[in-house]
From TrEMBL:
It comes from Anaerovibrio lipolyticus. GO terms for biological process: DNA repair. GO terms for molecular function: phosphoglycolate phosphatase activity. InterPro entries: HAD-like_hydrolase_sf, HAD-like_sf, HAD-SF_hydro_IA, HAD_2, HAD_sf, PGP-like_dom2. This is Haloacid dehalogenase. It comes from the Bacteria. Pfam families: HAD_2 (PF13419). SUPFAM superfamilies: HAD-like.
Length: 211
């Protein structure tokens, strides 16, 4: 492999969690008596900082009301998220290849760390990840580079040794701001041409193409 350290986003990069996320939003919208949004509109918020996604879906701007919505969302997530989250077909094989090559593999995501851990535990694949940095570990969301910078500090890696893999402009921005190489995987909502303003060393259709 070309790099020593491979850092990944989670949703739409390693897994398809669309059903879980959209269902949680729909249940919470119903609880708050807010008109339901179309599925295709809600899924476009995947990868956004959660409070921004809530504003986008609900129209709420009051921070207190958004927080109450978030608490209700988390209640449904505990029931619905992991059972409706599935690894992309080549994700596990790719992670196994990286570990076999002696690479350090980490996840840096705006999703909560414990929810990501739950998925790896459910599938018996915790050995494939060295560590996870989730939303509860940071105070700033992507494209702020805080999560990647934390991983760099934790590993002692030089930025030239690191590849960050993600599916969104938030991921691309975080990699750029951290000064690490970026690989765009086209398994999310972002089209290839949308990545043009950001430097990327690879643009791939699936993780099996990762170098």
């Amino acid at each position: 492999m070309k790099y020593k350290y491979y850092f990944f986003d989670f949703d739409y990069t390693l897994v398809n969690s669309e059903k879980g996320i959209v269902e949680c939003f729909l249940r919470t919208l119903e609880e708050f008596n807010i008109p339901a949004k179309p599925w295709d509109e809600i899924k476009l918020t995947i990868g956004m900082p959660m409070m921004d996604a809530i504003t986008k879906v609900t129209g709420l701007t009051d921070e207190g009301k958004k927080y109450q919505f978030l608490l209700a969302y988390k209640k449904y997530a505990a029931e619905l998220m992991t059972p409706n989250t599935h690894f992309f077909p080549d994700a596990i094989a790719t992670l196994k290849k990286l570990k076999a090559a002696g690479c350090t593999v980490a996840i840096i995501s705006t999703k909560t760390r414990h929810r990501i851990e739950e998925k790896f535990q459910q599938d018996g694949q915790t050995h494939l990840i060295d560590f996870i940095i989730g939303s509860e570990d940071t105070t700033a969301s992507k494209p702020d580079p805080q999560g990647i910078n934390m991983a760099l500090k934790r590993t002692g890696a030089d930025t030239k040794e690191v590849l960050y893999v993600g599916d969104s402009l938030y991921d691309a921005g975080a990699a750029k701001n951290a000064g690490v190489d970026f690989a765009a995987v086209l398994t999310g909502n972002t089209k290839g041409e949308e990545f043009a303003p950001y430097p990327s060393v690879q643009m791939i259709n699936s993780l099996s193409e990762l170098q």
